[in-house]
């Protein structure tokens, strides 16, 4: 009965979305003023109730996974009665249908929050924005209800479920997809705001201020989601790497690159009234990348551990949605581009120009990643299989990344609108000295490091010093939270770069076949295989090796990497064992047993590799500080009285 209630709530929410769109269109087309005024009062409540209905529907799905209701097809094919409770819950969104319901839930709840919280934009723009959000939601409701029903029953009811992919039975993967979805769907709100601004011709600072918290929120979740996904791949897949340029990884990176550009552009528009058309276009591009990622993961064109490979018919459905949403938005942009007034002008040497340059470089990296991701799919369609990996992505993206970091280092120190060469030289002096010192130390202590890692360490030092300079320039005690956010986020980029470069330059690996009691060296660690024993968990069995690791004369520590076997579905996994120290991580994986009785061991010493994820957390924390600061600033301002037109649209001055 719970399944039928969940499905009914989903249909009800879809009907509300249709009403929300229809009423929005009627109001925006004009007509009887009294009727429009009456209808306008129901748009916000419709969005709120729609969000509540979908949330209840998703709770129904969680409930049937919690009780392992095997009469529901989705539960029978993705769960098992013996699974730990966390993975029973995660099973609700660890599959195609459930994840799409989560997507629609987050989208509808976001629309409800916009309806409840947003008080600054005009009523016309609010209605246009909610109508655009309903339009996007209707496509996903149709996708769910017509081709991917998560509440479908199955007859006869099986005695036991098929279980969840064991690689997904990990705390990191339990929270990683929802985190990314908040990011993806947050960009849908930015997209709807952009469409609303184009429809009402209110592209200006008020629109930017309304959209900025959503872009910031989406960017924070995307940052944390990508960071968590990278760490999960590092420790769970047992290959010792943190980024493979896998198409599914790229599917989350592309929206992040576009959202990063949009975040900086919308700040310029909100504070300086410039980059109007560019900001709208980036909002469209950012959501387009979310849709492209959704198509890649769900169309069945990819084979990946975390791709929901489904039939091509569903992939075609998403492709049609992509064409409608993005094609429609671009067509609207083309029609209204001439009405978007040019924003405030600025000089070539200014902070705005630095932000624009970095935006263009980010788009360059995005183009590189997009081409490298799609090209193998295109060639495979013609019968030729091509594999594109780090040899393409690393140097190609570095062409854009290197100048971007250099501009990132000096840009925040330039003045708005107009700066000069003296200030540029002053801003670059200290970071350049730090970079030169880092280069010298790398050449002395790591002469075998490659060109890119050496360049990475040099630029990381430059950026780290440059990142904190705005604090001293603005007198630390008076620096606002958004400034602190920028500093922490840029410093996080430097920390991540240092981790990536160190891991690439200095990693040491030992691959051996070991007998019990035998010792091996990796870096300055001595590893001894003590034993290999069988162990069992709730839904798995494993062979667990006990390793003693000692560094110099220090106390030995014990590691226990496992080779696990799951029966439902039948899968073998490698559970790596890690030891973290201040200067790196020891990483151990147990392999198969050789015919002579020895055990394969793969051991790595990875200097400073945790900096990759510490930096990712810092980037997200910087975004959070900026978001809190912006919300605090807005709360202190008197809300703009809602009217039929935004202040800038009526030619009024807008406070910065």
Structure, described:
The structure is a single chain. The chain is 62% helix and 11% strand. It is of the alpha+beta class and 656 residues long. The strands form two sheets. Strands 2, 3, 4, 5, 6 and 7 form a six-stranded antiparallel beta sheet that branches. A four-stranded antiparallel beta sheet has the order 1-10-9-8. The radius of gyration is 27 Å and the shape is globular. Mean pLDDT is 87; it is low at 640-656.
Summarize this, please?
By secondary structure, the chain is α+β, with helices and mostly antiparallel strands.
Question: Which characteristics define this entry?
Answer:
10 strands; globular; four-stranded antiparallel β-sheet; alpha+beta; 17 helices; 656 residues; six-stranded antiparallel β-sheet; 11% strand; disordered C terminus
């Amino acid at each position: 009965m719970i399944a039928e209630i969940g499905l009914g709530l989903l249909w009800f929410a879809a009907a509300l979305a249709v009403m929300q769109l229809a009423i929005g269109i009627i109001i925006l087309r004009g007509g009887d003023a009294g009727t429009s005024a009456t209808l306008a009062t129901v748009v916000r409540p419709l969005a709120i109730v729609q969000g509540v209905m979908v949330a209840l529907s998703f709770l129904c799905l969680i409930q049937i996974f919690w009780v392992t209701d095997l009469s529901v097809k989705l539960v029978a094919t993705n769960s098992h009665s013996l699974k730990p409770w966390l993975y029973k819950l995660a099973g609700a969104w660890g599959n195609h249908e459930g994840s799409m319901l989560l997507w629609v839930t987050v989208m509808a709840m976001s629309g409800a929050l916009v309806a409840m919280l947003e008080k600054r934009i005009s009523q016309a723009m609010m209605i246009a924005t909610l109508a655009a959000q309903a339009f996007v939601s209707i496509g996903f409701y149709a996708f769910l209800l017509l081709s991917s029903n998560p509440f479908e029953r199955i007859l006869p009811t099986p005695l036991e479920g098929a279980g969840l992919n064991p690689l997904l039975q990990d705390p990191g993967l339990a929270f990683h997809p929802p985190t990314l979805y908040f990011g993806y769907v947050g960009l849908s709100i930015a997209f709807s705001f952009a469409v609303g601004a184009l429809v009402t011709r209110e592209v200006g600072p008020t629109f930017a201020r309304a959209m900025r918290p959503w872009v910031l929120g989406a960017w924070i979740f995307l940052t944390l989601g990508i960071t968590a996904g990278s760490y999960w791949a590092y420790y769970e897949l047992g290959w010792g790497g943190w980024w493979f340029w896998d198409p599914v990884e790229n599917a989350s990176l592309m929206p992040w690159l576009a959202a990063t550009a949009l975040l900086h552009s919308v700040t310029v528009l909100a504070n300086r009234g410039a980059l109007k058309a560019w900001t709208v276009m980036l909002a469209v591009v950012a959501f387009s990348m979310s849709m492209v990622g959704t198509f890649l993961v769900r169309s069945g064109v990819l084979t990946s551990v975390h791709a929901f490979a489904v039939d091509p018919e569903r992939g075609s459905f998403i492709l049609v949605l992509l064409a409608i949403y993005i094609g429609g938005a671009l067509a609207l942009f083309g029609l209204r581009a001439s009405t978007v007034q040019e924003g405030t002008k600025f000089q070539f040497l200014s902070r705005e120009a630095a932000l624009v340059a970095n935006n263009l470089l980010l788009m360059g990296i995005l183009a590189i990643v997009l081409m490298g991701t799609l090209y193998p799919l295109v060639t495979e369609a013609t019968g030729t299989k091509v594999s594109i990996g780090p040899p393409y992505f690393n140097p190609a993206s570095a062409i854009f990344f290197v100048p971007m970091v250099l501009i990132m280092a000096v840009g925040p120190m330039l003045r708005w609108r107009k700066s000069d060469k003296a200030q540029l030289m002053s801003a670059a002096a200290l970071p350049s000295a730090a970079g030169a010192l880092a280069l010298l130390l790398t050449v002395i202590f790591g002469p075998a490091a490659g060109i890119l890692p050496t360049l990475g360490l040099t630029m990381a030092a430059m950026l780290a010093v440059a990142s904190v300079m705005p604090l001293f320039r603005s007198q630390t005690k008076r620096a606002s939270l958004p400034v602190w956010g920028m500093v922490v986020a840029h410093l996080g980029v430097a920390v991540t770069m240092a981790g990536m470069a160190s891991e690439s330059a200095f990693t040491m690996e030992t691959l051996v076949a070991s007998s019990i009691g035998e010792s091996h060296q990796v870096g300055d660690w001595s590893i001894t295989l003590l034993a290999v024993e069988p162990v069992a968990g709730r839904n798995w069995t494993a062979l667990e090796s006990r390793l003693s690791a000692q560094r110099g004369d220090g106390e030995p520590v014990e590691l226990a990497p496992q080779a696990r076997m799951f029966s439902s579905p039948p899968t073998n996994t490698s559970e790596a064992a890690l030891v973290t120290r201040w200067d790196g991580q020891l990483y151990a994986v147990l392999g198969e047993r050789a015919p002579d009785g020895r055990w394969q061991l793969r051991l790595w010493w990875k200097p400073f590799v945790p900096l990759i994820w510490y930096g990712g957390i810092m980037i997200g924390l910087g975004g959070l500080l900026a978001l809190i600061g912006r919300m605090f600033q807005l709360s202190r301002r008197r809300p703009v009285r809602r009217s039929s037109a935004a202040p800038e649209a009526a030619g009024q001055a807008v406070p910065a």
